[in-house]
Amino acid sequence: MAGCGGSDDAGSSGGGDDKITLGFSQVGAESGWRTANTKSIQESAASAGIDLKFSDAQGKQENQIKAIRSFITQRVDVIAFSPVVESGWGTVLKEAKDAGIPVILTDRAIDDPDTSLYKTFIGSDFVAEGKKAGDWLVKEYEGKTDPVNIVELQGTPGAAPANDRKAGFGDVIKADPKFKVVASQTGQFTRTDGKAVMETFLKSQPKIDVLYAHNDDMGLGAIEAIEAAGKKPGTDIKIITVDAVKDGMTALSEGKINFIVECSPLLGPQLMDLVKKVQDGQTIPQRVLTEETTFTPEQAKEVLADRKY
Ligand code: GYE
Q1: pTM score > 0.85 for this model?
Q2: Is the CB of 262 under 6 A from ligand 1?
Q3: Distance 267 CA to ligand 1 centre (A)
Q4: Atom of ligand 1 nearest to the CA of 217
Q5: Ligand 1 neighbourhood includes 86 CB (under 6 angstroms)
Q6: Is 34 touching ligand 1 by the criterion CB < 6 Å?
Q7: Most CB within 10 Å of its CB: which of 57, 81, 157, 203?
Q8: Residue pLDDT, tens place only, 140-151
Q9: Per-residue pLDDT tens for 106-115?
Q10: Could you report the per-residue pLDDT of 222-272, keeping only the tens digit for each?
């Protein structure tokens, strides 16, 4: 198993000490958000005195399923994971349940209707994030009647934040027919793909007014493509992204991005708290929502110096 980052006293769970062992399966390292999320989880496990077995799935569901099975075999106390896609978790989570190991969903949801497969889901409301992006756009073009051509860079296909950010945004803009999503494709939440797909959009679309990218990294990649095409990001093409990581906030403060919807990756402290409560047999809420805001370029300038990630 590709485990690293935790302590190396493998197999100690259930042994002499009363340290909680947490098996955590991470999506990968696709974005600035993910890197900050991993750091938050590793640091807060260390300071909470939790023995973390960390596994990086490199973007593959099959690796996550393998990691979860390995955590079950190792008899960890609690399993937490950030599901790369929404579907296909029933079998392995049933195995964890049968083994009596509680599971916590972190960051991303699953679509299984059986909520007894996990104790809680901690993370953002991605539909609300998409709506905030749409609300900004509606305001920005208030009173105007000309068509607004939008291109969309979607996250990983099948991932909750990709599905929900698309849905929330679409829900808001459909109220006004001047808004047209003329092209929408996945950029896999990465800078490289964001850039490559934006290049094809720029070639195939005669007029692009707005780019909506499901995360900062794809938006940052797209900015490179826009500049290479001799256009000014933020002016010739307005850009909305989600996350608010430092690189995104920097581009926002420079006017290259126009609006960012925040999605906080700092889930570690709350997760460790929930792990302790679950281990303790306490009842915890089925859903723990992350608190988030939005940023304009002016607001980005104010907070940029203190932005930790
Ligand atoms: O927005 C994106 C990352 O699941 C909320 O995954 C997370 C998303 C985040 O790759 O940058």
Answers
A1: yes
A2: no
A3: 12
A4: 11
A5: no
A6: yes
A7: 81
A8: 999 999 999 999
A9: 999 999 999 9
A10: 999 999 999 999 999 999 999 999 999 999 999 999 999 999 999 999 999
26 close to ligand 1 (CB < 6 Angstrom): no
DSSP structure string for the chain: --B-SS-S-TT-TTSSS---EEEEEE--S-SHHHHHHHHHHHHHHHHHT-EEEEEE-TT-HHHHHHHHHHHHHHT-SEEEE--SSSSS-HHHHHHHHHTT--EEEESS----S-GGG-SEEEE--HHHHHHHHHHHHHHHTTT--S-EEEEEEE-STT-HHHHHHHHHHHHHHTTSTTEEEEEEEE-TTSHHHHHHHHHHHHHH-S---EEEESSHHHHHHHHHHHHHTT--BTTTBEEEEEE--HHHHHHHHTTSS-EEEE-----HHHHHHHHHHHHTT----SEEEPP--EE-HHHHHHHGGG---
Q: What is the number of the ligand 1 atom nearest to the C-alpha of 242?
A: 1
